[in-house]
C-alpha cells in the first residue's frame, strides 16, 4: 500500500480555512475517500501547551519580539505529536489527511516576522529541515492558499472569540494588525516560491461566495489523482 495524500488549506486568520476545510472534508467523505480532518494548533491537546502560552502572551505580547525560530518549535512539536498519535499509520496505509494549517503556517506567520528576504530564506530552509527531515512530518502534496486581503480578513475576525479561551480577547497574532499584514505579504511571496495553489477569494471588489471557492478547490482535487473515486 502506498502513502496517502496530505492536503493543506492555508491562509491568514479569517480567510476561510475552517469553512473550506469542513466543506472539502464533507465532499471527500461523500466520495468515499478515507480521510481525516485535522486542524492546527490542536488547542485541546497537551502538546499545544507552549503554543497557548505563546499566543496568550505569556512570553510577551509583541509577536515580533519573540524569535520565529523559537516560536516555530512550539507549533512543530504539536504537529509531531499529532503525526505520531493521530495519523501516521492511517496515512502510511493510503489514507488522506486534510489539514487546516500546517508547517505552511509557520512559514507565513513566523517567516513573516523576518523582513530581510535573505534571512527569511535561511529561516524557511531551517524550518523545512526541522519539520520534514528531523521530525519526519510528511510534506503536503498540495497546499491551497486562500488569498484574501488582510483588510477584509480583519473585518471577519473582529467580532470572533479566540480559540484558546473562547473569549472575545484576541491572541497576540490576531490583535496585531502589523503581524497579519506581514503574514499576508509573506504568504503571497512564499505561495509562488513553493508552488502552492492560490485561490483568489475576491472577484474585483466582491468577496467570492463560500460555494464558488469550494467549487474551485474541488476542481483541483479531482485532478490530484491517486484515488480512483476523486
Ligand atoms: N467566502 C466567504 N464569504 C464571506 N464570509 C466568509 C466566507 N468564508 C468564510 N466566511 C466567514 O468568515 C469568518 C472566518 O472564516 P473561517 O472559516 O473561520 O476562517 P479561518 O479558519 O481562516 O480563520 C467566518 O465568520 C465565516 O463564516
Ligand atoms: C499551526 C500554526 C499556527 N500559527 C499561528 C497562526 C495564527 O495566527 C495562530 C493561531 O492559529 P488559529 O487559531 O488557527 O488561527 P485562525 O483560526 O484565527 O486562523 O497561530 C503559526 O504561527 N504556526 C503554526 O504552525
UniProtKB/TrEMBL annotation:
Keywords from the UniProt entry: ATP-binding, Kinase, Nucleotide biosynthesis, Nucleotide-binding, Transferase
Domain named Thymidylate kinase-like: residues: 9-189
GO BP: dTDP biosynthetic process; dTTP biosynthetic process; dUDP biosynthetic process
UniProt EC number: 2.7.4.9
Superkingdom of origin organism: Bacteria
InterPro entries: P-loop_NTPase, Thymidylate_kin-like_dom, Thymidylate_kinase
UniProt xrefs under SUPFAM superfamilies: P-loop containing nucleoside triphosphate hydrolases
Enzyme class: transferase
Alphabetized GO MF terms: ATP binding; dTMP kinase activity
Record-linked Pfam families: Thymidylate_kin
Keyword Transferase: yes
Coiled-coil regions listed in the entry: none
GO cellular component: cytosol
Recorded family membership: Belongs to the thymidylate kinase family.
Function: Phosphorylation of dTMP to form dTDP in both de novo and salvage pathways of dTTP synthesis.
Name the record gives this protein: Thymidylate kinase
Encoding gene per record: tmk
Amino acid at each position: 500500500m502506498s502513502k496517502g495524500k496530505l492536503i493543506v488549506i492555508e491562509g491568514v486568520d479569517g480567510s476561510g480555512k475552517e469553512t473550506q476545510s469542513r466543506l472539502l472534508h464533507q465532499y471527500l467523505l461523500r466520495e468515499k475517500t478515507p480521510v481525516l480532518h485535522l486542524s492546527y494548533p490542536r488547542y485541546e491537546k497537551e502538546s499545544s501547551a507552549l503554543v497557548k502560552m505563546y499566543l496568550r502572551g505569556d512570553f510577551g505580547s509583541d509577536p515580533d519580539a519573540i524569535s520565529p525560530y523559537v516560536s516555530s518549535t512550539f507549533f512543530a512539536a504539536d504537529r509531531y505529536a499529532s503525526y505520531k498519535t493521530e495519523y501516521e499509520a492511517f496515512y502510511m496505509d493510503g489514507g488522506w489527511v486534510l489539514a487546516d494549517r500546517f508547517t505552511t503556517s509557520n512559514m507565513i506567520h513566523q517567516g513573516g516576522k523576518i523582513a530581510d528576504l535573505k534571512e527569511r530564506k535561511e529561516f524557511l530552509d531551517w524550518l523545512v529541515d526541522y519539520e520534514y527531515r528531523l521530525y519526519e512530518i510528511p510534506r503536503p502534496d498540495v497546499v491551497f492558499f486562500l488569498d484574501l486581503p488582510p483588510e477584509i480578513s480583519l473585518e471577519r475576525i473582529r467580532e470572533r472569540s479566540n480559540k484558546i479561551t473562547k473569549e472575545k480577547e484576541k491572541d497576540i497574532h490576531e490583535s496585531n494588525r502589523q503581524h497579519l499584514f506581514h503574514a499576508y505579504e509573506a504568504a503571497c511571496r512564499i505561495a509562488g516560491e513553493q508552488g502552492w495553489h492560490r485561490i483568489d477569494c475576491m472577484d474585483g471588489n466582491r468577496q467570492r461566495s463560500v460555494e464558488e471557492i469550494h467549487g474551485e478547490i474541488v476542481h483541483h482535487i479531482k485532478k490530484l489523482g491517486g484515488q480512483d473515486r476523486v
